[in-house]
Amino acid sequence: MGRQVNLYFVLPLLFLLLLSLRRGQGSNPDRPTCGRCDPQLSCNCSHAGFTCVPTVTDGALSLDLSSNNIAAVNADDLVGHRRLRALSLHGNRLAEIHPTAFDPLWSLQDLDLSDNQLTALSHRWFSKLGALQQLNLLDNPYSCLGSPPLFQRLVWLRRLRFGGPALKELTKGDLSGVTQLEELTVHANNLTRYEAGALADIWPLGRVSLSLHGPFLTNTTLASAVLGDVSYPETPLAVSDLHLTDYRSVQVLRAAAVRRIRYLTLHNVFLSDSAIVYLLEVMDGVPLTLISMDGVTLMGQGRWERANRTDHKSIDEFLVRNAVVLNVFEFVSFLQLRFLLQYPRRVSVINAKVFVTPCVTSRLLKSLQYLDLSDNLLTDLTLKETLCYGDGTLKDLRVLNISGNALKSLSTVSHLVAKLSKLTHLDVSRNGYSSMPPGCSWPSTLQFLNISGAKLTSITPCLPPTLEVLDLSNNDLKVLFLVLPSLRELHLSGNKFLRLPPGWMFPNLQTLTIQSNTLNMFGRSDLRSYGRLRSLQAGQNKFVCSCDFVDFFQSAIDGVGDVQLTDQVESYVCDSPLDLAGEPVGRVRLPVVECHRVLLVSVSCGVALSVAVLLWVLLWRLHAVWYLRMMWAWLRAKRSSRRRRRHRDGSGSEALISFDAFVSYSERDASWVENYLVPELEEPRDGDDPHRGPRPLNLCLHKRDFLPGHWIVDNIISAMERSRRTIFVLSENFVRSDWCRYELDFSHFWLFDGDAGGDATILILLEPLAKDDIPKRFCKLRKLMSSTTYLEWPQDEERSEEFWRSLRNALRGGEEEED
Ligand SMILES: *[C@@H]1O[C@H](CO)[C@@H](O)[C@H](O)[C@H]1NC(C)=O
Ligand SMILES: *[C@@H]1O[C@H](CO)[C@@H](O)[C@H](O)[C@H]1NC(C)=O
Ligand SMILES: *[C@@H]1O[C@H](CO)[C@@H](O)[C@H](O)[C@H]1NC(C)=O
Ligand SMILES: *[C@@H]1O[C@H](CO)[C@@H](O)[C@H](O)[C@H]1NC(C)=O
Ligand SMILES: *[C@@H]1O[C@H](CO)[C@@H](O)[C@H](O)[C@H]1NC(C)=O
Ligand SMILES: *[C@@H]1O[C@H](CO)[C@@H](O)[C@H](O)[C@H]1NC(C)=O
């Protein structure tokens, strides 16, 4: 029975143990951890050499695992990440993803699996990703998307990228479920089989980018079918990796032309002269507004005039970027292209090694409002030719961008544009301007001027007062002294400014950037001088973290008045003092001692003073002063008494005792002492027998017997030494009112501490006085009152005789012993 019970108990335990062991094995205890998460819970674990998915905090919102060596995503690698919004596995060696690996990612919006080794895609991966909006499957070695359809469940999908060098076929059901996209990118350079309509059901379709190198060369039917399926008037179409030389390949674009596309971009294309003529013919009459070519190699001579009968009225913008002309020296200028050049309002030829545009060609650009010739080889001389020596050709030009050329003279460019009476924007940045002439002529419409990235060392009134935006960043400027009343934006980053330019010169300035200069500090008053400033960027300067600046800055992080620091607070870093170098100004904690010296001194003085006052009050309340004074008096008295005694011993002896009693009394009780005590004790009594009767006593009274000019305590002590007894006349007055006397007298108790106390003291109570009425600190007196019997001055006359007798007896008591 007992054995069975044990078994029942043990078996489930064993089972649990096994289960936990299995779980342990399954979840790979060796998984590394990635802790590179920022406070926004965005974890960047890219370029970290991981070979499997690392463990990351469950709270992560975005996880970048790109450029690692991860080969597989296991079933429970991503368990717990139900908050994850973005996951990137781009650039790994992923060959295997467990079918349920992504199931926990309920919130995932952005998934990037591009550039991996996935040879087959599984619809199971995406079946639980209901929130997915972006999916990138580019550049994996799969040859088809596979079935059942991958994207069936992805109802929110808006950006889809797929394909790669191995993609061979696309069939009709492949994209079922995908109905509407903002962006579609398909890499299909090796596509050999396309089922017409495979991409046709997506609408509206925001932007399409297709790589169709192979089909354009080998199967134009296929390429046409693809293009036809994605071409809509409102859908910008970009076709990449084309080699267009012959008639057949160019005809593929007719499929897009008949769908009346309006935006066409060719990326990475190789074009011959004849291909361009065919292209212009294919696009004849099509309401194309933008032709853009990015990464174009032209191998002809620019002879496109054979297409001069075609109609391109609708062309608004013509953009060529990163163009290479193979036969530069044979290339003719676009002289015969009036049919093409008279329409566009915007022309950009960027980074195309253009060194001149002949004036005749410029004159063809009749509608031109925007001309961008940035990153070319223009010089002052060829710019003169291009702008027809400033005769006002291109009269509608509003924006001229000649950034990144080899221009050297600002006065030349100002002359050339002076007659462009509509010019508002001029970008002459990244040129070789090293000086500014004292005066220039600009069109009165000029509002925007960019002279950044030159080598200017000073600013002159060459700059027009009409400017609203001025960019002078990345020059060698130290000061700027020029009133620009209309300026709204001023960019001065990357110069050598030591301080902010005075704000009154720019009464309308709203934005100021002055990063990466040598600013040491700025303060409230500097910012106040800019009446309208809203946004300031001043990071990456050489800040001197003084108390004032740190204090100002930390309060300014949230804005001074209307001014906001719009760059990263972390970019404001201390340069000095040395111990703070590299520390973000916002986080510096300066020692209080350093920053509030005056305050500190005054506070500590105040504290010291009040402590002193408090102490004084306390001492006063506790009568410590009194005690101290007493102690002092006692010490002095003791010393002088000893001295006196020595002196006496040395000089033989003068009679030590010369009084019968020293009388200590309050001034207020003087009348009693003088009228009763003295007469009673000192005068021989009538009717007494002078031989038998009491002899008169000799009293010492301070009024009468003290030596003038001696210290009172000395006097008292000497009086007491020379008196046989001390009589204290106690009364309310004595105790309460007559402080001084009392204090002095009290010293006697200490002086005659112990040996002289007791019998030597006679207390007379003039009025009834309870022991408790005597202040506590006169403890000696209190003790005395309890140990010594005292004489009470009787209130009725008859008993006074008795009192005097007792007093006399008390005074004579010692005498008899002595005799
Ligand atoms: C992660 O860091 C790399 C550089 O290490 C960077 O290229 C990438 O953009 C970063 N990813 C994110 C999501 O910020
Ligand atoms: C696909 O096309 C590229 C050129 O784009 C070529 O180099 C490659 O060999 C082709 N791959 C396959 C699998 O056909
Ligand atoms: C071109 O592609 C179409 C559609 O996939 C296909 O039917 C045809 O056989 C291909 N032609 C050649 C020559 O490969
Ligand atoms: C078109 O160019 C040809 C030369 O190629 C020329 O003969 C013809 O006159 C031109 N037509 C127009 C309308 O410019
Ligand atoms: C001029 O071109 C440069 C480089 O292409 C660009 O950065 C700049 O924004 C352009 N300026 C204007 C005013 O468009
Ligand atoms: C001025 O030109 C530079 C370089 O081309 C560019 O980076 C900058 O954005 C331009 N400034 C403005 C205000 O557009």
List the helices and strands and how they pair.
Layout: H1 2-26, E1 42-44, E2 62-64, E3 72-73, E4 86-88, E5 96-97, E6 110-112, E7 134-136, E8 159-163, E9 169-170, E10 183-187, E11 193-194, E12 208-211, H2 213-218, H3 220-230, E13 237-244, H4 247-251, H5 254-258, E14 263-271, H6 273-282, E15 290-298, E16 317-325, H7 338-341, E17 346-350, H8 359-364, E18 370-372, H9 380-386, E19 399-401, H10 410-417, E20 425-427, E21 448-450, E22 469-471, E23 489-491, E24 511-513, H11 524-528, E25 535-537, E26 543-544, H12 547-556, E27 564-565, E28 574-576, H13 592-595, H14 597-621, H15 624-650, E29 659-664, H16 670-682, E30 699-701, H17 702-705, H18 712-721, E31 723-730, H19 732-737, H20 739-751, E32 761-765, H21 779-787, E33 791-792, H22 800-818
Parallel strand pairs: 1-2, 2-4, 3-5, 4-6, 6-7, 7-8, 8-10, 9-11, 10-12, 12-13, 13-14, 14-15, 15-16, 16-17, 17-18, 18-19, 19-20, 20-21, 21-22, 22-23, 23-24, 24-25, 25-27, 26-28, 29-30, 29-31, 31-32, 32-33
The protein binds 2-acetamido-2-deoxy-beta-D-glucopyranose (6 copies).
The site of one 2-acetamido-2-deoxy-beta-D-glucopyranose has 5 residues, from strand 11 and helix 3.
Give a concise summary.
This protein has 819 residues and is α/β, with parallel strands linked by helices. Residues 657-811 form the TIR domain.
